[in-house]
Design a protein that fits this description.
single chain; alpha/beta; Isopropylmalate Dehydrogenase; 10-stranded mixed sheet; two-stranded antiparallel ribbon; 11 helices; 12 strands; about 40% helix; binds nicotinamide-adenine-dinucleotide; binds manganese (II) ion
């Protein structure tokens, strides 16, 4: 039997609640599917590790993850440690260390979910946002001088390479081609940002020539926010820079009903390194430790993990179980207006998997 080696990194806050829930669901889907199994290794990195060791993860941490088939991640972010320290010390260290340059974020209105747009039917909103995940605004290039003095200066330099831009656009065109509507929107801000964003537009036009089957259009990022709200059905696959797509995908998650539902994959499409799967939400300090976290974003991320491993049937099985559970209002967590706990939702998905297998 095939056994997949999975690293679990709960991290901080509700990551410690939703990642163990995800692991339980992965075990249940393996049992229900047959033919493969998981071998998990848990890594206690994050804020607690920082307090004990002065770093978010060990210096040789990437080596410990290197041989894994995939990583299931929770959240990095601790109320007592600056956010840029936790983010750069753990999540970005893994994303950049493993060159997971394609961040993929599907959004749909799942059955039973009350989404905020009045005129938007569930079938109108079926998007995948592709986020450049290795450079751009989050390249980490920049610095501060004369700290604390009136002449203090600080820069965050957005760095775009032709290689980086071309590979993410190519990935997005390929993804768009694989979806029924074969429609891609390339988001930039090439009116105001007249160097790198203009290069994006140029590279997009070049790459598009290799994908004659894909219809594509361009949108400026500010106009894109309005289009997402006003004309959701005009959108299918979207590609944007690291910062722009970060913001657009939180908006997308909210339009689909809750941040607690949305999944993401940090992919190394060339499969040189393990890819990492995580809910898009953060540590949620306001509800952590209370059993209130919605685990659906993590479960949907597990669907993406299964797809990445090539276990398409198991992925469909899990998605079906998730949708059966979201369709039941009694199984909604508080973010969806319900009263169910993380444990109850987890148990319901596991039961559904077992029942469907019989
Ligand atoms: P957040 O996603 O943690 O929370 C925003 C709001 O959404 C909160 O009210 C929270 O309760 C709610 N929410 C989020 N996920 C939920 C879930 N699964 N179920 C129910 N409600 C949910 O965002 P934030 O407050 O901006 O950030 C908190 C911390 O998390 C910060 O330290 C931030 O840096 C970190 N963060 C980490 C990641 C990551 O590691 N990928 C992503 C975003 C934020
Ligand atoms: Mn974000």
């Amino acid at each position: 039997m095939k056994t997949y080696a999975i690293a679990t990194i709960p991290g901080d806050g509700i990551g410690k609640e939703v990642v163990p829930a995800g692991r339980r669901v992965l075990e249940a889907v393996a049992a229900a599917s047959g033919g493969f199994a998981f071998e998990f290794e848990d890594f206690g990195w994050g804020g607690d590790w920082f307090r004990a060791h002065g770093e978010m993860m060990p210096a040789d941490g990437l080596a410990a993850l290197r041989g894994k088939d995939a990583i299931l991640f929770g959240s990095a972010g601790d109320p007592h440690i600056p956010d840029h320290v936790t983010l750069w010390g753990l999540r970005l260290k893994i994303c950049q260390g493993f060159d997971q340059y394609a961040n993929v974020r599907p959004t749909r209105i799942l059955p039973g979910i009350d989404a905020p747009l009045k005129r938007c039917r569930p079938e109108d909103l079926d998007w995948v946002i592709v986020r450049e995940n290795s450079e751009g605004e989050y390249a980490g290039v920049g610095g501060r001088a004369h700290q604390g003095h009136p002449i203090e200066v600080a820069t965050d330099v957005s760095m775009m390479t032709r290689v980086g831009v071309e590979r993410i656009l190519r990935f997005a065109f390929e993804l768009a081609r694989s979806r029924p509507r074969r429609l891609l929107t390339v988001v930039t801000k090439s009116n105001a940002q007249r160097h790198a964003m203009v290069m994006w537009d140029e590279v997009a036009a070049q790459v598009a020539q290799d994908f004659p089957e894909v219809r594509w259009d361009k949108e400026l990022v500010d106009a894109m926010t309005a289009r997402m709200v006003n004309r959701p059905a005009s959108i299918d696959t979207v590609v944007a820079t690291n910062l722009h797509a970060d913001i657009l995908s939180d908006l997308a998650a909210a339009l689909a009903g809750s941040l607690g539902i949305a999944p993401t994959a940090n992919l190394d499409p060339e499969r040189r390194y393990p890819s990492m799967f995580e809910p898009i939400h953060g540590s949620a300090f306001d509800i952590m430790g209370q059993g209130l976290a919605n685990p659906v974003g993590t479960f949907w991320s597990c669907v993406m993990l299964l797809e990445h491993l090539g276990e398409a049937a198991a992925a469909r099985r899990l998605m079906q179980a998730i949708e059966t559970v979201t369709a039941t209002p009694a199984l909604h967590t508080r973010d969806l207006g319900g009263r169910a706990t993380t444990a109850e939702v987890t148990q319901a998905v596991c039961r559904q998997l077992a029942a469907a297998a019989r």
